[in-house]
Amino acid sequence: MSTPSPALQSSGPGRAFRYFLRSPLLVVHLVVMLPLLLLTMVPLWAGLPVAGRTFKQFSVEHWSAALMRIFGFRLRRSGTPLKGAVMFVSNHVSWVDIEMMHSQRMVGFVAKQEIAGWPVVGWLAQRGETIFHQRGSTESLGGVMEAMLERLREGRPVAVFPEGRTRDGTEVGPFHARIFQPAVEAAVPVQPVALRYGDGGEAQQLVAFGPHESFFANFLRLLGEPSRVADICFLEPIYPDQVQGRRQIAETARARIVAVMGA
To answer: Are strands 108-112 and 190-197 parallel, antiparallel or unpaired?
Structure first.
């Protein structure tokens, strides 16, 4: 994975202009479009079919895609997300990863408990079927695994970041094998997803959280960055009955993502 040059760090009049242009769009998206999005989650009509998915899923996907555009990300998708019960797994550098995935398919994420307190993203995550996990708690992890297994058996998708935390964008960390157990027990496919920012991943470190950078600081910094391409690559799925257990699933999924990130 390439390292971004200092020239990628935006500053000066260009950044000020982007704040001037994007801030009103963001306000409208949060103050007007977000309440409308919540209306689509009313049980009375949330499940109505729209373009091959539910009204709720359709609305979340389009809202997330619009948010990505406001932040200047030009989305490019390769591959096709599986339908039905599937576990999506991807690399993880920032909160943007969640919105990028939601722009293609609304899915219940497994996320750290702290995200529930993040402005906007955390509030939306709680209403978007997110499964929250208290890191370091064995009891919490057990509950998360049961919730994932239940959803998969119901034919619903889940998504996880198997690295267990965000990275700085310089590498894809090891994947924890245990998190793949629900897919093994439910006998559903695991589909790796590579999330790459900038041409060839040149902006991976820029999008990632900086040292001691808070969610709010990262949010504001990215709002002023130049427009960049963002690739979301749905890779060949892994079927539990074709590999030797959850560890091999974890290693295979990571290898496929790393291969794309280094391409």
So the answer is: unpaired
Residue 256: how many CB atoms within 10 A of its CB? 20
| Residue 55, burial from CB neighbour count under 10 angstroms (0-12, 13-18, 19+) | middle
Compute the chain's Rg from CA coordinates.
18
Element (H, E) at 176: none
List strands edge to edge, sheet with 73-78.
73-78, 228-234, 190-197, 87-90, 158-160, 108-112, 131-133
Contact between 227 and 73 under an 8 Å Cβ cutoff? The reply is yes
* 2-6: Cβ within 8 A, 24+ apart: 2/200, 2/201, 2/202, 2/204, 3/170, 3/205, 4/198, 4/202, 4/203, 4/204, 4/205, 4/206, 5/202
pLDDT-based confidence at residue 32 (cuts at 50, 70, 90): very high
134 φ, ψ (degrees, to nearest 5): -85, 105
In the chain, domain spans: 6-261
Tell me phi and psi for residue 68, to 5 degrees: -60, -40
Q: How many CB atoms lie within 10 A of CB 96?
A: 21
pLDDT in tens, 97-138: 999 999 999 888 887 777 777 666 676 766 667 877 766 566
What DSSP designation does 128 have?
A: T
Asked: is 6-261 a CATH 3.30.160 domain? The reply is no
